[in-house]
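I have been asked to look over a protein record a colleague put together. This is what I was given:
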Amino acid sequence: MEKILISRCLLGEQVRYDGNDNLIPHPLITTWRDRWVPVCPEVSGGLPTPRPPAELQQDGHIITIEGEDVSAAFNRGALHALMLCKQHNIRFAVLKENSPSCGRHQIYDGTFSGVKVAGQGMTTQALLEAGIQVFSDQELDALADAVSVIESR
């Protein structure tokens, strides 16, 4: 059975920057409960919950709305996610879209104005570079298809 890395907030854990969760009402969340290896890269990197919102800047740094550079914490979290993938032989991840850590296709533009742009979060980038297939929380059906192809071999 394939283990799959998943953002903790998608499982209903209140680790978002604002102390809330992003629980997905999708049947895989419960039916695959034994497959999930949960991670919140931001919390793993040492950031508290709640915490000020942060956005990826054009220069690659991640800055909070208060102007603090939290890039090092985000990097530590990305490395922790990679370590979990190696430890559990993970080939797939499902991460929260739009996040400066986990965004797969979109992230906020760095201006704290709510504008989204094409881009990837720091953890997503690291996982993709390591050869791990990353899906957004909006792509659970595609994840299920990819996993079934692997497991049918």
About this structure: The beta strands are 4-7, 36-39, 54-56, 62-64, 92-95, 106-108, 116-118, 133-136. The two ends are 12 Å apart (CA to CA).
